[in-house]
């Protein structure tokens, strides 16, 4: 299916960026979230993982294929707004882990899409987009995640195989993934010696163990171990030693989506607080009657709307084939720092009820930090932005 832009929707939706097609897609995703996710999210959070069946249902709902080629079961779209909508609707569950894990192919599969051969796409992309297999991305190592160019997991070529030794950590969907796009060192030190291999579950010498986390509970996060794991050369994505650029390109998209997630989670906090403040009575009056509470709410809205304006603008620029790397870094920092402030205020407005398990604002508050760290920590975003801006 190819979705094309036709008519802008302006009367009801005060944005020049969202079309009727976007809104139809939103309705589709909202139905999926209300039917499949909302009733089950607490059970998945307790189970510390999503059921595999959910991926198949998400594929049927048109969620997993967005942005991938039709030829391999994807749904081609003209802009990133579709993914922003998907993230926004999933965020209504207040579970960032749902977004991270259900959509882990969003970071694991693009290198296959951009640099893979037809055979690799048939094997590693088509079943993932159909929700039959799970994909993940493994860059970060126990020795460090920010300094990607110095990763140490080594792959040494022996005939038709690479022999892989090393370890990866903090890998989203790492326990369940069938296909892991793994960054390995095949050449010289530094960024010129990095390649990408798809390492399959069940490869002898590849084991994994789960990690317990502050938030994102329903997202299975793992440390991966490679001990003389033999990976076919046919699983290398792109030319040898050309993996670093693919990793960097991947990061841009991931950062936009993490910013979208931060914005959407902040919006959920605001919506929850507004409803709560109207309902909750203290000293004989609803909280909303207190100026200090109203000011907290308008401060939230002011910051949330500013993030959304920049998010939409950058999505539009990306749809026009621009690559605003510095602005994407700064957006990620703006969105995640906004979420940290908004989620903190949200728990405060809820009082003790905001500290209890089961409150949406409680979960979101626990999940704020991962967005400021994952996909490039705030400090690294500032460094990269300043370099891009020529400082
Ligand atoms: C829940 C979760 C899920 C994740 N999922 C994935 C995944 O699917 N795949 C994957 O590959 N990775 C994943 N990550 C890893 C994530 O991308 C890294 O945690 C992140 O890149 C930071 O790396 P690090 O944790 O090793 O921190 P470090 O690199 O050790 O940095 C520690 C701190 O020092 C700061 N710092 C580092 N260098 C500098 C410097 N030069 N100047 C100033 N400050 C600096 C950092 O900003 C950070 O605040 C995940 C992480 C989490 C927590």
What distinguishing features does this structure have?
single chain, alpha+beta, 4-stranded antiparallel sheet, binds flavin-adenine dinucleotide
- Structural class, by secondary structure, is alpha+beta
**Cofactors and ligands present?**
flavin-adenine dinucleotide
How many individual β-strands?
A: 10
- Largest beta-sheet characterization: 4 strands, mixed
Q: What proportion of the residues form beta strands (DSSP E)? A: 5-15%
Distance between the first and last residues' Cα: 44 Å
Order of helices and strands: HHHHHHHHEEEEEEEEHEEHHHHH
The strands making up the biggest β-sheet line up spatially as: 1-4-5-8
pLDDT averaged residue by residue? 96
Based on CA atoms alone, the radius of gyration comes out at: 21 Å
Spans of at least 5 consecutive residues with low confidence:
none
Classify the helix fraction into a percent range: 40-55%
Q: Please count the helical segments.
A: 14
Shape from CA axes? globular
Structure report:
By secondary structure, the protein is of the alpha+beta class. It has helices spanning 20-37, 41-47, 52-60, 81-91, 96-102, 105-108, 110-115, 118-129, 243-279, 291-319, 325-350, 360-366, 368-373, 378-388; strands at residues 135-138, 154-158, 161-172, 179-185, 194-200, 206-210, 221-232, 236-237, 281-282, 285-286. The strands form 3 sheets. A 4-stranded mixed sheet has the order 1-4-5-8. The chain has a 4-stranded antiparallel sheet with strand order 2-3-7-6, with no helix packed on it. Strands 9-10 form a two-stranded antiparallel ribbon. It starts with 19 loop residues before the first helix and ends with a helix. The mean pLDDT is 96.
């Amino acid at each position: 299916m190819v979705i094309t832009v036709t008519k802008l929707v302006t009367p009801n939706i005060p944005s020049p960026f969202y079309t009727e097609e976007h809104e139809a897609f939103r309705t589709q995703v909202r139905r999926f979230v209300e039917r499949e996710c909302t009733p089950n999210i607490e059970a998945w959070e307790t189970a510390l993982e999503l059921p595999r069946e959910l991926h198949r249902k998400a594929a049927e709902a048109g969620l997993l294929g967005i942005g991938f080629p039709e030829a391999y079961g994807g749904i081609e779209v003209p802009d990133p707004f579709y993914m922003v909508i998907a993230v926004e609707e999933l965020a209504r569950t207040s579970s960032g882990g749902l977004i991270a894990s259900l959509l882990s192919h969003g970071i694991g599969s693009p290198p296959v899409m951009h640099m893979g051969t037809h055979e690799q796409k048939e094997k590693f992309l088509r079943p993932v987009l159909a929700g039959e297999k799970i994909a993940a991305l493994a860059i970060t190592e126990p020795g460090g995640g920010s300094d990607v160019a110095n990763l140490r997991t080594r792959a040494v070529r022996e005939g038709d195989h690479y022999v892989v030794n090393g370890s990866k950590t903090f890998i989203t969907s790492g326990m369940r993934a069938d296909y892991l796009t793994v960054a390995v060192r095949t050449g010289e030190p530094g960024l010129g010696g990095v390649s990408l291999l798809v390492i399959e579950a069940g490869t002898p010498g590849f084991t994994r163990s789960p990690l317990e986390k502050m938030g994102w509970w329903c997202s299975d996060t793992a440390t991966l171990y490679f001990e003389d794991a033999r990976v076919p050369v046919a699983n290398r994505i792109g030319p040898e030693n050309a993996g670093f650029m693919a990793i960097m390109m991947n990061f841009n998209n991931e950062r936009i989506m993490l910013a979208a997630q931060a914005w959407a989670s902040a919006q959920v906090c605001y919506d929850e607080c507004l409803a709560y403040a109207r309902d909750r009575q203290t000293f004989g009056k609803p909280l909303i009657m207190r100026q200090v509470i109203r000011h907290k709410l308008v401060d939230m809205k002011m910051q949330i709307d500013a993030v959304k304006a920049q998010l939409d603008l950058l999505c539009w620029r990306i749809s026009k084939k621009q690559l605003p790397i510095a602005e994407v870094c700064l957006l990620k920092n703006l969105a995640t720092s906004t979420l940290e402030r908004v989620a903190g205020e949200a728990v405060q407005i809820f009082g003790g009820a905001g500290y209890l398990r089961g409150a949406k604002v409680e979960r979101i508050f626990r999940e704020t930090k991962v967005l400021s760290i994952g996909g490039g920590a705030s400090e690294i975003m500032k460094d990269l932005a300043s370099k891009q801006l020529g400082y």
